[in-house]
Amino acid sequence: MTERLVAVVPAWNEEGAIGRVVEEIRAFDPAAAIVVVDDASSDETAVVAAAHGATVLRLPFNVGIGGAVQTGFRYARDEGYDVAVRLDGDGQHDASELGKLLAPVHAGTADLVIGSRFVDPGGTYRPPLARRIGIRLFARLVSLLGGQRVTDTTSGFVALNRSGIELFAVEYPHDYPEVESTLVAVRSGLRLAQVQVDMRERQAGTSSITFVRSLYYIVKVMLALLIASLRRYPRLEAAGR
Fold first, then answer.
1. Are 103 and 95 in contact (CB under 8 A)?
2. What is the spatial distance between Cα 125 and Cα 117, in angstroms, rounded to a whole number?
3. Tens digits of per-residue pLDDT, 67-82?
4. CB neighbour list of residue 108: distance below 8 Å, 6 or more residues apart
5. Dihedral of the alpha carbons of 92, 72, 213, 19, in degrees to the nearest 10
């Protein structure tokens, strides 16, 4: 039986980059389904994505990155896909590296694979000091609370199998979700792997994360992680294994 792969691409006002993202995914795997979740963009993101052959899920109002990603995972679950990858719609994730993320899933050694910028200490990614401090702080906190070393909790470049799809279709944080979702995955019993990847600068558009939002992000995520560490999550068996 042929494995069914879907690429989930959340996008908000990414008309300048989304076409290239879709084409890069297709170049990696022409057979993969590509689903762009348009988070109520005010530009032509949905039109451009559809013109490049993607299936477009248009949300009637803006729900944020977490809600958009979960919409994509629910689509993957309901349509019966075996494996999903997630890439952002701004072009920062290089689809040619998807093979590295998918390898542990195909080998049956991981349920969730994170494309990390920090597995290799010699990696090329050099974020600004404030961001680097935040990334390291979150990574150490998630590692402590989850009982497993995690190097890059802010990466949205992931691959997951059916168990991961079913878990995240039900349990996925909606506001700046990458950090908290990693903890949810580990505490739910998903087998986590990390592979080194490079990431590009955003290809077009403007980031929604301003300096003020960055401060809010740090405080909110710290509180969310502490709350999440006290919650009980469905174990792996409930996620379809």
1. no
2. 6
3. 999 999 999 999 999 9
4. none
5. 40
Q: What are phi and psi of 47, to 5 degrees?
A: -65, -45
Tokens 């803006």 -> residue: 62
Distances (CA, A) of 44 to 24, 40, 64, 192, 212: 19, 10, 18, 36, 28
| CA atoms 146, 151, 152, 157: torsion sign | negative
The DSSP H or E segment spanning 106 is helix 98-107
Burial class (CB in 10 A: 0-12, 13-18, 19+), 108: exposed
Say which residues have a Cβ less than 8 Å from residue 19's Cβ, sequence separation at least 6: 48, 49, 51, 52
Convert the pLDDT of each residue in 118-132 to its tens digit. 887 766 666 666 666
Q: How far apart are CA 224 and CA 150, in angstroms?
A: 17
